[in-house]
Amino acid sequence: MVESPVVQGLRAYVLIVGMWIRSTMAYRTSFALTVLGNFLVTGLDFVAIMIMFWHTDVLGGFAVAEVALLYGTASASLGLADLTMGSASRLGRRVRDGTLDTLLVRPVPVIAQVAADRFALRRLGRVSQALLVLVWALSSLEVAWTPVKALLLPVTVLSGAAIFGALMVAGAGFQFLAQDAAEVQNSFTYGGNTMLQYPPTIFAKDLVRGVTFIVPLAFVNWLPALRILDRQDPLGLPGWLDFAGPVVAVGCCFLAGLAWRAGLRSYRSTGS
Amino acid sequence: MTEAFIELDGVEKVFEVRRRSGRRLRRERCTVRAVDGISFAVPRGEMVGYIGPNGAGKSTTIKMLTGILTPSGGRLRVAGIDPSRERTRLARRIGVVFGQRTTLWWDLPLRDSYALVRRIYGIPEARYRANLERCVELLDLGALLGVPVRQLSLGQRMRGDIAAALLHDPEVLYLDEPTIGLDVVSKARVRRFLREVNSEQGTTVVLTTHDLTDIEQLCRRVMVIDHGRLVYDGGLDGLHAVGESERTLVVDLERELPPIAGVPGARTVRVDGPRQWLAFPAAASAAPIVSAVADRYPLVDLSLREPAIEDVIARMLESGEGRRSAVP
């Protein structure tokens, strides 16, 4: 009986994640403190946004609750991606110290093992903080809800997570060649997240174009959130693009898969 | 001839490295032939030692045999599988122990690491239990199963790692420096276990090591690699012949005498009071030399010293280039 690599990979992922959670629980107090720390530290950048709104009522034409919607969706997406795939960015270290080899001799896909490696439940801190902000935003906003909009919101968070996750995997693939490249990838994921927490109207149009068509971060939350808020996007793009998040996410995952395979292949022929 | 289980035919591995040169931070490309055309075959059930100095290409060969690295040239098959193309499929049939990198879970009891292996490899419950029981008994792991791995000694952890590599009944076991850093007792236990696995289960074993006692006690066949080339492939005794090694006859005479002379095939290499040392080729018989000495000298006692295998290999590698053609 031969299972598909996807099923095998998912099963291995879950098993390894379980091992790491139990390892973490060997140090319960330390775990509780890091979750709390994570929650507070990620909360700080929302505090920064609140402070800004003490001095102004609107930012780029957006009210505080609207910015909170952007913040909550972007941060929840990044948090989910970081929780499930973030460990892949440690790949460079494994390449350098040679422990990647021990993963290559197991009968399960390497990406599943790498993504589950040192799985850190403390990253739930960011997710829960983002969801709190999101709940607050939704309760303060006066949105004309329709079934389409209500569905668009969770779909947006999930496809946003997939886009961030794809960036992390692609970044990991690149680390086969350059082991210290984690920072480049961080500038797209963490840096991108910080940008997406603010309204697109405050950024230069070329930057908005760049994150729409080159690194498609605008699909993480900007475009769908503008639809929920009944606003026009600064580039005047066709309206159906607001719903393109899942398609973009699938495309990103596909490209990330290619980048990962290319990276792994180059490792196996250079052994660097 | 027995069917070859591991087969290498002119296998090469060339790395391209960039090196800074000169003052202008210009980087020069150059190639390193880590494995430079190696051919050998290992039949199923054999236990072979793979030795050579650091950087000779041992680990690179093991990595190609496990599918971690893709060869740059030549043909390579393990159990009929091309390792680099079907790495994941091969992984179910091989066990690997990297002496210096544990695969056990640091903060969890040893038992948990084994449970993960069982589920990752999908080992049937009954088989898993039987294998674990055998490993626990032979490697004396019983008291350690509930202990977090971080609290194990190096020797205990190595035994734990070897057991982890065998739970899925691999047909071949690769061990990269399995006794490195272990004390004498742990080494002996590991060796006894490997002999057992090889003879009882018929597991093919490929072993790299710096500890030549491992080879002497475990392997009938030894392969020596240097600068990416196989410089010797054969039995341990043959190694002595190729290495031009000598045995030493130590004789205690009744009194101090001038150096013993006129014994055909032997020469006196050292005199210390009534004791004298005679060297002769390792392949030659000691009997005629002993009787020649006993006939003409007042002999009190004698002993025979075998050549140290370290010296044999060192001599063989020193004599380098010329001997490369000596590979059968």
TrEMBL record, chain B:
Superkingdom, taxonomy of origin: Bacteria
Membrane topology: Peripheral membrane protein
The protein's name in its UniProt record: ATP-binding cassette domain-containing protein
Gene3D superfamilies, per the entry: P-loop containing nucleotide triphosphate hydrolases
SUPFAM superfamilies from the UniProt entry: P-loop containing nucleoside triphosphate hydrolases
Keyword Nucleotide-binding: yes
InterPro entries: AAA+_ATPase (IPR003593), ABC_transporter-like_ATP-bd (IPR003439), ABC_transporter_ATP-binding (IPR050763), P-loop_NTPase (IPR027417)
Location(s) in or outside the cell: Cell membrane
Residues covered by the ABC transporter domain: 6-252
Keyword Lipid biosynthesis: no
Record keywords, A-Z: Antibiotic resistance, ATP-binding, Nucleotide-binding, Transport
GO molecular function: ATP binding
